[in-house]
Amino acid sequence: MMSNNITEMGIDALVYSFQQRMQLLLKQEAGKHQMDAEPTWVLDIIENEIMPAVEKIVDWEPTDDEMIAGNTCGTPWHDGCK
What we know:
Elements: H1 11-30, H2 40-59, H3 64-68
Helix pairs in contact: 1-2
């Protein structure tokens, strides 16, 4: 069972949870009146700089070259090879 306690999460779980929560918060911010919302420049940084970096981390998958690196069998994800 995965913990919802951020102090117990691994990097992958924490970054994924951050992504999901931030997407929800950004949608909520979009519905707020300008006087009640976060400053536009803050939201711009989150949406244009932070979230793309978070999405890159969450969606990352190793390339074939990365999977083969250090693998004596020469095939990606071959069982028993080191």
